[in-house]
């Protein structure tokens, strides 16, 4: 991709100001259910847990529509998988922020996960959808963030939550005002394209997993003829699961 008419370019190690540290997100709910999808589907969806979680969360209930008019299903998936992807892709911002925060912070121990993480069904459906849809190919994706970030070149990090990204750099340039923002240019090897696959309104949208580990390649402060912004370049390293199968032991020993 080509930079935006750059006339000033300065490499830096760390962004300034009050900023979020890009680290390994150790408290993330990052279990991938690989190898036990059938068991997880039974325990987290068919058992009635999905309905229970919908009943106690109005935002979740509003976002998830298993009977949506979109007739498309992802390969090997169900209407619940499609509904979960569409809920996250096009759901209200307050709902997706609540879900993101829960995924990022409620996997530190089993007690927190059991008692306070009320999106077990949605998390499984999204993770399983990514396993079903992943092409295992790498691609550079992009996301613009208003929040400031601290990132050390050469360090490793995970987002620790699902990240909605754009597949088109040029489209993002036209859509957004970049001034004061952070643009992440991310080479991911475990992403899925959403858009038309789920009848989303944003055809250029893709999804990155909470478990994918990246190397921070560059952190650059950039000023061009339109705006000043920070560029953070990330390259996929591997998929990391910090908690592993023990996280699922309260749910009758999945896997």
UniProtKB/TrEMBL annotation:
InterPro entries: ADP-ribosyltransferase_ARG, ART. Pfam families: ART. Keywords: Glycosyltransferase, NAD, NADP, Nucleotidyltransferase, Signal, Transferase. This is NAD(P)(+)--arginine ADP-ribosyltransferase. It catalyses: L-arginyl-[protein] + NAD(+) = N(omega)-(ADP-D-ribosyl)-L-arginyl-[protein] + nicotinamide + H(+). GO terms for molecular function: NAD+ poly-ADP-ribosyltransferase activity; NAD+-protein-arginine ADP-ribosyltransferase activity; nucleotidyltransferase activity. Its EC number is 2.4.2.31. Belongs to the Arg-specific ADP-ribosyltransferase family. Residues 1-19 form the signal peptide.
């Amino acid at each position: 991709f080509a930079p935006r008419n750059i006339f000033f370019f300065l490499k830096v190690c760390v962004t300034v100001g009050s900023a979020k540290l890009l680290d390994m997100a150790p408290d993330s709910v990052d279990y991938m259910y690989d190898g036990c999808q059938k068991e997880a589907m039974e325990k987290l969806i068919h058992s009635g847990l999905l309905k229970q979680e919908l009943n106690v969360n109005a935002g979740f209930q509003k976002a998830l529509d298993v009977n949506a008019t979109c007739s498309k299903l992802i390969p090997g998936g169900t209407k619940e998988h499609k509904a979960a992807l569409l809920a996250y892709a096009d759901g209200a911002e307050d709902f997706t922020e609540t879900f993101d925060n829960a995924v990022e912070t409620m996997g530190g121990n089993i007690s927190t996960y059991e008692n306070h993480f009320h999106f077990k069904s949605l998390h499984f459906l999204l993770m399983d959808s990514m396993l079903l849809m992943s092409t295992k190919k790498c691609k550079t994706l992009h996301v613009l963030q208003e929040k400031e970030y601290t990132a050390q070149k050469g360090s490793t990090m995970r987002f620790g939550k699902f990240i909605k990204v754009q597949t088109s750099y040029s489209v993002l340039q036209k859509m957004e005002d970049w001034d004061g923002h952070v643009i992440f240019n991310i080479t991911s090897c475990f992403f899925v394209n959403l858009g038309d696959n789920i009848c989303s309104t944003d055809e250029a949208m893709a999804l990155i997993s909470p478990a994918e580990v990246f190397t921070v390649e560059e952190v650059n402060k950039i000023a061009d003829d339109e705006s000043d912004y920070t560029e953070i370049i990330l390259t996929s390293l591997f998929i990391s699961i910090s908690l592993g199968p023990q996280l699922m032991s309260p749910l009758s020993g999945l896997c």
